[in-house]
Request: fold
Amino acid sequence: MTGNHKNTSITRRRALAVSGGTVAAGGLAVAGFQSAFADTTDTSTDADATASASSTSSECMTLMSSVTEGPYYLDGALVRKDITEGKAGVPLTLRLTVVDATDGCTPVKGAAVEIWHCDAWGYYSGYTTANPGGSAPAESEEGDSANDNTYLRGYQIANANGVVKFETIFPGWYTPRTCHIHVKVHTGGEKEDGTYEGGKVNYTGQLFFADDIAEEIFTLDPYSKHTGSYTTLANDMVYDGGGASSGLLTLKAVHKKDPSKGYKGSLALAVDPDAENTGAGSGGGGTPPSDAPTGTPPSDSASPSASASS
Reply:
C-alpha cells in the first residue's frame, strides 16, 4: 500500500495484513461475493455475508495493490449510481465491497468509492479529443447526449456493509492499455453540492477484466468500430498478475449465451482506512496515446475540474 500511516499503533492483525497477511481463500471470498451482489437496500444477505467474513478471525485479505491514477483523472465526480449518461455499450453492474484489511476485513461504512473509465471507443470524458490508438471514430460521432465532462465518472457511498453499486457499461480500450476501470477509496469526507468533498484517499487502483470476456465484448457493436491491437492482461503495464488483490474482477454474464445482455462484476476492496494514498502508485498508468489530453475542462462546481496527473 502506498501512503503514510497516521495511526502508529499496530495490532497483531494489522501487522499480519500490512506484511502480507493470509488470504482467506474460502470464507472471505464467498462472503465478499455475496456481499457485493446483495442489493444495497436488502440488509439480510449483506448481514449474513458480514457475519461470514467476521468468522475468518485472524485471517484476512491482503491489502489491494495501489497503482497510479493515470492521466485521465478529474476532481469533483458526481455522487450517483448510474454513470452512463446514455453512453452506448454492454451493460455492467458493478458491486464493490470496501473492507478493512487491517481489522479482520470488517466493512468500511461510509467509504466513498470513486470510479472512472473510458467509453466503448476508448475516450474519457474531459479528454474527448485524445486519440485512443488504433482506428476509432471520433467521440463526437457516437451521437449520444452524454455530458463530455462527466460521463462514466461517479461516486457511491458505502452502506453499513461496505457495499456500493454502479450501473455503467463495459469499458473499451486504448493503446497501450488493457481494458480497465480506475478506482479510488476515500474516507472522512462528505457529500456536498452533488459531489464528495474533504477526507483523504486511502486507495488508488484499477479494476481489470479477464481477456476472454473482454475480447468477446469487443467483437460487438459499438466496440467493434474501434480496431487495432488490444493489450492483454499479461502485456499490460499496470496489471501485475495478482488476481483479485490486483483488481481482477469476478464477472458473471446476465445471459450466458448472449454477452450483449451485460455482466455483473464484483470485488472486495481490502484497504487500510488509516493510510493515505497520493495516487502516484506503481505502474505506468497509461500515458495518453499520442499527446497530452486536450479535452475542455468543466467550468462549474458541480462538474469535475481539470486536475489530471501525468
